[in-house]
Amino acid sequence: MTTSVGRRRVIYSNPSRAARPLPEASGRERFWWYFMRLSGLALVLLVLGHMFIMHVLVVFAGQEIDFAFVQSRWGTPFWRIYDGLLLVLAFVHGARGARTVITDYVTNRTARSLVIGVLLALAGIWLILGVLVLIFFDPGVHSVSGPVS
Amino acid sequence: MNRLFGYQVSWAELAWFGHRVSGLGVLLYLFMHIVETSTVLLGPDVYDAAVGIFKNLPARLLEVLLMAAVVYHALNGLRVIAMDFFPGLTIWYRPLTYGVIAATVIAMVPLGLIMITPFMPWGA
Q1: Inter-chain contact A126–B31, Cβ cutoff 8 Å?
Q2: Nearest residue on chain A to B87, judged by CA atoms?
Q3: Phi, psi (degrees; rounded to nearest 5) at B3
């Protein structure tokens, strides 16, 4: 057809019936294909670990999630790094997943860029907020029974 | 066969749809969770009030739903990853999909019971 602009029509064949096929050309799409799967593997451990501690172990220990709980948790570098890794991976994985869903349903190009732009802006702001909280929370400030008192 | 928005769908298509819905739901929760957690910078009174909003049975039931979404998304994601990297596994496509759905339901029985325990007569 001569009327169509030279945009190549990509036909995905996916006989394996797995999720999306690996993009054939290397580049950004292929990077994200691998990223979603590898971050997904890491997140299975990170998220389920997080939820198991917060919703199962806390119940068994008869503890309450309150300020003192956060103070003791974020008093150790291990849990700050754990939560930081969880925060960044979950947000990037979630934003990329939402972007995939948007590109599947929003076909108008202007609307698509607009919706994806809003998504990325919101995700960026929230991610920065989360990272700042993790960095700047000071367990000693409101301490009543902290290590120095 | 099941029906979804008037379409006949298989369990496998429901599994795919569930992956999207659970993923978007958890992302939405994540936005709220960061706002709630960031109040920790405002001191014990504000933070304890913020997390206090979620310490009741209706909120706990929503958290059980969140747990179900995370467990399902994790298990189904593992199935997708396994089939993507080991295409031979796609022979077991159908049993693996049913297995994911069954494992989610089975896992949620003890998890749900533990999570609602503090608000139940048998709990503290």
Answers
A1: yes
A2: A16
A3: -115, 135
| Closest chain A C-alpha to B105 CA, distance in angstroms | 16
Q: Which residues of B touch A60 (CB under 8 A)?
A: 114
Q: Assign B4 to helix, strand or coil.
A: strand
**What's the pLDDT score for residue A19?**
67
What ipTM does the predicted assembly reach?
Answer: 0.90
- Interchain proximity A18–B26, CB inside 8 Å: no
Write down the residue that tokens 């948007």 correspond to: A102
Report the C-alpha gap between B78 and A47 in whole angstroms: 14
Contact B90 A16 (CB under 8 A): yes
Contacts of A55 (CB under 8 A, 6+ apart): B63, B67, B111, B114, B115
Angle (CA) A55 A67 A148, round 5°: 125
Chain B residues with CB-CB distance to A126 below 8 A? 30-31, 34
What is the model's pLDDT at position A148? 43
Residue identified by tokens 């958290």 is B63
Cα torsion angle, A52, A53, A57, A58, sign: negative
**Among candidate residues A98, A49, A105, A115, the one with its CA nearest the CA of residue A78:** A49
* Of residues A17, A48, A51, nearest to B90 (C-beta): A17
Nearest to A143 by CA among B20, B4, B12, B44: B44
* DSSP code per residue over B55-70: -SHHHHHHHHHHHHHH
A98 with B111: Cβ contact below 8 A: no
Give the global pTM: 0.87
Residues A116, A99 contacting (CB under 8 angstroms): yes
Mean pLDDT in consecutive groups of 10 residues from the start of chain A, 149 residues: 50 57 86 95 96 92 90 92 96 96 92 96 96 90 53
